[in-house]
Amino acid sequence: MSTVISPEILETNPWWIPRQRYYELKHFCLQYPEWKRALEYLDGHQYQAELTDIPKTKTNITIDVTSDVAIVRESLSKRIDMIELAAEKAGADLSSYILKSITEGIPYSILRSRNAIPCCRNEYYDKYRKFFWILDKLRD
Known about the structure:
This protein is an all-alpha fold.
């Protein structure tokens, strides 16, 4: 998947991050839809039924399904919240557009034609870069 904007911006730009870090964060964000689906799936009931069907080992170790599900749900929720928070901080008025673009790989031109995004290209990509800068700080 190619990027719409150049991952390399001038180091004098206030939202500068290293190119490889940008790619790391971009691929992190592309997992967002999977996390949302997994979070919906992990309601505890269906997952618990699948895990209780697993036969016990010779040592008869019991599986604490509830805590396993809670740990996974917390981890997924943290990641989802981190991305949503970064989008909100990058630009509250554009957060839904940024979130859609970041998590689904939709470029500005398609957002503009389908969703009537309320800003110009330069303003949008400024917020887009700011999003990755904020996410970089949140992930540290």
